[in-house]
Design brief:
By secondary structure, the protein is an alpha/beta fold. It has a single domain, classed as Rossmann fold. Helix content is 49%, strand content 15%. It contains ten helices and seven strands. Strands 3-2-1-4-5-6-7 form a seven-stranded parallel beta sheet, with helices on both faces. 45% of the residues are buried.
């Protein structure tokens, strides 16, 4: 294997600066830890400052570089300030992972306005705000990777999750549009669509429901947060430089 080929498949992110939203736990924590382990300097963003500190502590214990940043992703001014501070501190921004998200489940006929507004606000507005803010320094540097965490429910819908499914479908539409807008600046924009992953959010379904879910998945199990982190790591690397505007389901074959 030639040195040129080796360089194309590396996941060495030394010298890269990343922002990961929703980094306090679950998928966000696994993503932040993986990017840091690959050499990136990672700004870990979340509203849960106490739990977020544990993510940063774990990264630093493994020799990585990270900083905890408290931020409400729906606050436009705060999001702009966070991105500016990261760029100034680490002299650039190369990777953005929009992972912050919540659920407020309920049948559509019973869904309250605040259930709809809160989920769309965090999941979709938050992704838009960070994408808009991060695009500016990335355009200036003429390089970047934006990776949005969608969900398979945004592809196929899910009863009881009209708000969540709509927000993730919106993330997919946003991803494909921004990919076209930023392609000429060497910025790729892709989405990862997890299926059922073993996180605190999924655990709320209960053991009985989870067992039924497993029967629907060809691989017969829930995914792990690291399965998603590995996909993000790939899309953030030089190996994925010709991939943009795509949605990658990581679901054990559920939507296959």
């Amino acid at each position: 294997m030639t040195d040129q080929i080796k360089s194309r498949i590396t996941t060495d992110l030394t010298g890269k600066v990343a922002i990961v939203t929703g980094a306090a736990r679950g998928l966000g924590r696994a993503i932040a830890e993986s990017l840091a382990a690959a050499g990136a300097q990672v700004a870990c963003v979340d509203v849960d400052a106490e739990t977020l500190a544990e993510t940063v502590k774990a990264i630093e214990a493994n020799g990585g570089t990270a900083e905890a940043v408290a931020c409400d992703v729906t606050d436009s001014d705060r999001v702009t300030r966070v991105v500016k501070d990261v760029v100034e501190k680490w002299d650039g921004l190369h990777i953005l992972v929009n992972n912050a998200g919540i659920t407020r489940d309920g049948l559509v006929v019973r869904m309250k306005d605040d259930q709809w507004d809160t989920v769309l606000g965090i999941n979709l507005r938050g992704t838009f705000l960070f994408t808009r803010a991060a695009a500016r320094p990335m355009m200036k540097g003429r390089q970047g990777r934006i990776i949005n965490i969608a969900r398979v429910s945004g592809l196929m819908g899910n009863a009881g999750q009209a708000n969540y499914s709509a927000s993730k479908a919106g993330v997919i539409g946003l991803t494909r549009t921004v990919a076209k807008e930023l392609a000429d600046r060497n910025i790729t924009v892709n989405a990862v669509a997890p299926g059922f992953i073993a996180t605190e959010m999924t655990a709320k379904l209960g053991d009985e429901v989870i067992e039924e879910v497993k029967k629907m998945i060809p691989l017969g199990r829930l995914g792990e947060p690291q399965d998603i982190a590995d996909a993000v790591l790939y899309l953030a690397s030089d190996a994925a430089q010709f991939i943009t505007g795509q949605v990658l389901p990581i679901d054990g074959g559920l939507t296959g």
